[in-house]
């Protein structure tokens, strides 16, 4: 009989994981405490923008015509108990604590507290949330105390990228499982049999290593981005071109091209808070010195946002007062509607606070941006955002922005000055249409 699987927490991670588990042939119950989220998912609607996820849900959510019926959602812990899952994935989020670097474990702790007395004997609980190292050991203790006999814990970090969540979940580039016994490993090999058969490496570790793999992977990615952004600063000072530099060093296979895109830096719900939580945890463990470089990674990253504000101020003649600024992009990266710690919105907000009239347009992030920054103006299209603008800021590299017609925009802008915060527009094309094009870490033309 196919395994029965539950997924607790249905954000980007959980909703995708639940749908992917149904796709792999398991019977799945997703649980979330937010009724609106559950209602949307149960109707086959995705409460956020994630390419391909709605199609996947449509193929499996019970009650949708032609679906496999293998996937259901609930807010009820009693229903979860009744369902009698063999494997329970905990996918709730671990945001940064207010006013602190450490991450907030409240949702993970609450999920484990509700789950422990409701799992059946012999079931496996699998943590997927990004947690401070040492959490799995502590939570195993909690299960030993409050769950029935024979319930095991495993830690199975998730490496999916927003915008590619479905692909990354169904075809992961590696599967990492932290276990303290053969039984958990065996069950997880059964759960992931399809990707393993496809060639995904299956790495078995202890609990702390599995937890550390996740935070160190994100720290490495953040470091790589801040490295190239530091090079952008030097290029700006020395008259070099960071895009060419990245291309040239990237040809060295040991370095690689990926994650060397200089610009206004990283944001989102993961990289910024993960490096901070990692520093906080290392401090608690007495290993803070090992991670002091992450402080520098963080500050290089935050400096990029300030630098973009400075470039914009310079472009409008030294003060934002009475000027109009068009901002193209609100999400922290393209193909997502996520605006958490978005560099684009941060820059827009700073300029607004300094007296500029900021008009934002984003293909998918408008609703979330409005909620976070209701005082900014929002336009329905790039053209409307640019109308009357003294400067145009390109801050999230959506394909739609690369396909804009600079000549048409030039006809509605007040001044033809564009600042490319993502080094993603075709500078030559914009210049040809009469724009002053400036990018980060690149020489002025
Ligand atoms: C990141 C990791 O890439 C995933 O592997 C991980 O699973 C996830 O966090 C998580 O912990 O859940 P994600 O937050 O979706 O994924 O976004 P990324 O694609 O890593 O991009 C993060 C930020 O870095 C974005 O703001 C992006 O614009 C920026 N970035 C990325 C650059 O500025 N330059 C680059 O070269 C690449």
Automatic annotation (TrEMBL):
Entry keyword set: NAD, Oxidoreductase
Provide any one GO MF term from the record: UDP-glucose 6-dehydrogenase activity
Keyword NAD on entry: yes
State its Enzyme Commission number(s). Answer: 1.1.1.22
Which ranges form a coiled coil?
Answer: none
Does Oxidoreductase appear among the keywords? Answer: yes
Binding annotation for substrate: 159-162, 214, 259-263, 267, 333
Q: SMART domains recorded for this chain?
A: UDPG_MGDP_dh_C
Q: Name one Pfam family in it.
A: UDPG_MGDP_dh_N
The pathway entry for this protein reads as: Nucleotide-sugar biosynthesis; UDP-alpha-D-glucuronate biosynthesis; UDP-alpha-D-glucuronate from UDP-alpha-D-glucose: step 1/1
Please list the residues that make up the active site: 270 (nucleophile)
Q: Where does NAD(+) bind?
A: 32, 37, 94, 130, 162, 273, 340
Instruction: Give the record's family classification.
Output: Belongs to the UDP-glucose/GDP-mannose dehydrogenase family.
Q: List the NCBIfam families.
A: NDP-sugDHase (TIGR03026)
What's this protein's name?
A: UDP-glucose 6-dehydrogenase
């Amino acid at each position: 009989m196919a395994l029965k699987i539950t997924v607790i927490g249905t954000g980007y991670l959980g909703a995708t994981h639940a749908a992917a588990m149904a796709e792999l042939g398991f019977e799945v119950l997703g649980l979330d405490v937010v009724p609106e989220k559950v209602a949307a998912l149960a109707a086959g609607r995705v409460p956020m923008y994630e390419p391909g996820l709605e199609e996947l849900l449509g193929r499996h959510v019970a009650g949708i015509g032609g679906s496999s019926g293998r996937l259901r959602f609930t807010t009820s812990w009693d229903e979860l108990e009744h369902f009698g899952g063999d494997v329970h994935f905990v996918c709730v989020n671990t945001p940064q604590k207010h006013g602190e670097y450490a991450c907030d474990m409240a949702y993970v702790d609450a999920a484990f507290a509700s789950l422990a007395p409701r799992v059946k004997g012999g079931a496996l609980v699998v943590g997927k949330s990004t947690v401070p190292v040492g959490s799995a050991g502590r939570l195993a203790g909690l299960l030993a105390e409050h769950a029935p006999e024979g319930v095991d814990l495993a830690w199975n970090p998730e490496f999916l990228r927003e915008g590619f969540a479905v692909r990354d979940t169904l075809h992961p580039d590696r599967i990492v499982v932290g276990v303290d016994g053969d039984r958990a490993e065996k069950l997880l090999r059964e759960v992931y049999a399809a990707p393993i058969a496809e060639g995904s490496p299956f790495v078995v570790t202890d609990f702390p290593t599995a937890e550390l793999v996740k935070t160190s992977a994100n720290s490495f990615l953040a470091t790589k981005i801040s490295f190239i952004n530091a090079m952008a600063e030097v290029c700006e000072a020395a008259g070099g071109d960071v895009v060419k530099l990245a291309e040239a060093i990237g040809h060295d296979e040991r370095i690689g091209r990926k994650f060397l895109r200089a610009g206004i830096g990283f944001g989102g719900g993961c990289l910024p808070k993960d490096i901070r939580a990692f520093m906080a945890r290392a401090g608690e463990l007495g290993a803070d010195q090992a991670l002091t470089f992450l402080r520098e990674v963080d500050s290089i990253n935050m400096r990029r946002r300030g630098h973009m504000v400075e470039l914009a101020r310079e472009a409008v003649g030294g003060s934002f007062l009475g000027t109009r600024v068009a901002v193209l992009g609100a999400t922290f990266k393209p193909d997502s509607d996520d605006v958490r710690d978005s560099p684009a919105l941060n820059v827009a907000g700073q300029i607004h606070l300094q007296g500029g009239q900021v008009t934002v347009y984003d293909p998918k992030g408008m609703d979330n941006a409005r909620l976070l920054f209701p005082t900014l103006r929002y336009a329905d299209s790039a053209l409307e955002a640019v109308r009357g603008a003294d400067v145009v800021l390109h801050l999230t590299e959506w394909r739609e922005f690369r396909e804009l017609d600079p000549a048409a925009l030039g006809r509605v802008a007040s001044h033809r000055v564009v600042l490319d915060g993502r080094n993603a527009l075709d500078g030559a094309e914009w210049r040809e249409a009469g724009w002053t094009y400036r990018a980060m870490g690149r020489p002025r033309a």
